[in-house]
């Protein structure tokens, strides 16, 4: 009998998750750790990383790293080499998480968002490419980027209490770019046996949000509800596992159908 662990088990694998203490980052890290991977939790706040590692249990490594810093990312790569010399799963989840509009956005906001999305991706690949190639010798290493439905469509202003309460334009712009960057990376890294795929979440609001807003968001999906974070975690687990070994350059949209109408 085939068990879930036979299908999606990651025992002996090494996973790295940036933005690990974020709302979705936590559930992604939990899924990978729960599948048996040694999971490196990457973020800027060591205290929050330590707390998350304690909560998740398993083999989790809290690794403070500012992915916008060349030195920090290089140091992370050195630590990974010293710890075992391979990376099987790299999840790039770090992003700018505030609200805004064209009216409130500053030019620097676009640069900050692009640094977290694009430049950080380049830094991370520079620090881990050799480790991913090592993993390719006996497996199917996976790089997973995280975009957003607002990289595919624009927010609907009437859903929010004010024009400045939705996701800002620089957020959507870089999330659209992440989808295309994923394709470029999949083409370049494919010959080395490294897969690169994107996950595009839809409405996954946090707990304790405004019930009226949650209702409006739910009404925008054919399924009539918002997402449960576990529904993102299982998608990440599939893309991380060898069971998706012939999937690369894909954008897996998990949005309850938001973007289909």
Automatic annotation (TrEMBL):
Q: Which family does it belong to?
A: Belongs to the short-chain dehydrogenases/reductases (SDR) family.
The molecule here is called NAD(P)-dependent dehydrogenase, short-chain alcohol dehydrogenase family
GO: which molecular function terms? Answer: oxidoreductase activity
Q: Which organism is it from?
A: Paractinoplanes atraurantiacus
Indicate yes or no for the key word NADP: yes
User: Record's InterPro entries?
Assistant: NAD(P)-bd_dom_sf, SDR_fam, Sec_Metab_Biosynth_SDR
Per UniProt, the keywords (alphabetical) are: NADP, Oxidoreductase
In terms of Pfam families, this protein maps to: adh_short_C2 (PF13561)
Q: Which residues form a coiled coil?
A: none
